[in-house]
């Protein structure tokens, strides 16, 4: 396992991090904790969790694993978050997380999921950021971090005043143009960078024919190719993948362990092709889940991805056989645009709905 400095901190984090949001059976604490410990034995030392993950069981699972990791005497790092807008909200979240995790100090604590610049201003005025820094001064957290879905050019606003020691953002071969400026802004300030959603919500490994050009050799799997693409870029500290079970851990550890340096000029060639074709696909983050009409927006957007990647495909089969959905459910849409307001990528969702209805990709 490769280990990298986390910005200017003294932490050396594994290039592969553990995303504790997709356990196959989160209700089984012992089995899920065994998956965490399996990753730890494979060399993973960065563990990312949050309140609400896995039916609110994720922090409890990580806490169970922490007991055993402490016994090992080897270093590890726990990351968790608060989406609170006020100082009181953050303090309550922090105290709950400390109790669930069984820790006196949390290594990386996030101002979680900043969606818009207005949201950021509200975190500042409400005291959320101040409370995170206060907790750091009190020794309850070691490093202050921000998690965001802002476009890359806007991320510098979160970082310019020096509140944070790192940033966590969604970044992959399908949306790197959208967030690349955020990576640069962090690197310019010597901050740690954690990449979430490194395989584009599964789009990359599920579409080998479309994305095979990111491979460095024909024998690479798409998981290997997607992770190696990110490993090859400077400024990234760790890539967090969501693991369901031990087999998922083994696959990802094998993928990041491959030595696949990019030939001269290959990265720039990739950048040109990705810039031209693949930076506006939905990453299925599901932040659009609170539709007032009960439409599961992300399922239609995921079907639209396949439509955009392969224009000859019909989205209706994808909706029917993968999601058990019918296109006429979109008739309930009132065009309130709430889904577009919360979309982490600012995608034209209603326009995509229209394309799905007509069977004509944009």
Description:
The chain has 362 residues and is of the alpha/beta class. Helices cover 46% and strands 14% of the residues. It has an 8-stranded parallel beta barrel with strand order 3-4-5-6-7-8-9-10, surrounded by 7 helices. The protein has a two-stranded antiparallel sheet with strand order 1-2. α1 crosses α3, α7 runs parallel beside α8 and α11 crosses α12.
Globular, elongated, flat, extended or rod-shaped: what is the shape?
Answer: globular
Q: What radius of gyration results from the CA coordinates?
A: 20 Å
Provide the CATH superfamily of the largest domain.
NADP-dependent oxidoreductase domain
> What are the segments in which pLDDT stays under 50 over at least 5 consecutive residues?
none
Distance between the termini: 42 Å
The proportion of residues forming helix, as a percent range, comes to 40-55%
Named CATH topology of the largest domain:
TIM Barrel
* Secondary-structure element string: EEEHEHHEHEHHEHEHEHHHEHHHHHH
Strand content: 5-15%
Tell me the number of helical segments per DSSP (H or I, 4 or more residues long): 17
Task: Write out the strand line-up for the largest beta sheet, numbering strands in chain order.
Answer: 3-4-5-6-7-8-9-10
Tell me the name of the CATH class of the largest domain.
Alpha Beta
Q: How many structural domains does the protein architecture include?
A: 2
Proper CATH architecture of the largest domain: Alpha-Beta Barrel
What integer is the average pLDDT? 87
SS-based class: alpha/beta
Largest sheet: 8 strands, parallel, barrel
Question: Total number of β-strand segments?
Answer: 10
């Amino acid at each position: 396992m490769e280990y990298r400095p986390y910005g200017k901190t003294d932490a050396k984090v594994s290039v592969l991090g553990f995303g504790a949001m997709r356990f196959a059976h989160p209700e089984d604490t012992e089995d899920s904790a065994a998956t965490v410990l399996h990753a730890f034995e494979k060399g993973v030392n960065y563990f990312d969790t949050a309140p609400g993950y896995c039916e609110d069981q994720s922090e409890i699972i990580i806490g169970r694993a922490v007991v055993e990791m402490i016994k090992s005497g080897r270093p590890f790092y726990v990351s968790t978050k608060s989406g609170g807008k006020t100082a009181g909200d953050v303090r309550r979240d922090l105290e709950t997380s400390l109790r669930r995790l069984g820790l006196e100090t949390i290594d990386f604590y996030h101002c979680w999921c900043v969606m818009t610049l207005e949201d950021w201003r509200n975190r500042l005025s409400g005291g959320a950021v101040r409370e995170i820094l206060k907790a750091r001064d009190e020794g309850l957290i070691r490093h202050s971090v921000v998690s965001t879905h802002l476009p890359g050019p806007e991320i510098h606003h979160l970082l310019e005043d020096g509140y944070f020691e790192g940033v966590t953002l969604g970044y992959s071969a399908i949306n790197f143009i959208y967030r690349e400026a955020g990576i640069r802004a962090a690197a310019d300030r010597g901050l740690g960078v954690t990449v979430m959603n490194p395989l584009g919500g599964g789009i990359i490994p599920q579409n080998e024919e479309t994305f095979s050009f990111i491979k460095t050799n024909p024998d690479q799997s798409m998981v290997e190719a997607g992770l190696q693409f990110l490993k090859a870029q400077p400024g990234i500290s760790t890539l967090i993948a969501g693991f369901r079970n031990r087999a998922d851990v083994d696959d990802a550890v094998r993928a990041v362990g491959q030595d696949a340096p990019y030939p001269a000029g290959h990265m720039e060639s990739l950048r040109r092709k990705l810039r031209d074709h693949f930076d506006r696909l939905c990453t299925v983050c599901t932040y659009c889940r609170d539709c007032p009409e009960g439409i599961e927006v992300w399922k239609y957007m995921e079907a639209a991805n396949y439509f955009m990647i392969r224009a000859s495909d019909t989205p209706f089969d994808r909706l029917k056989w993968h999601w058990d959905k019918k296109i006429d459910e979109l008739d309930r849409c009132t065009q309130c645009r709430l889904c577009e307001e919360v979309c982490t990528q600012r995608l034209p969702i209603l326009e995509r709905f229209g394309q799905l209805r007509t069977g004509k990709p944009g």
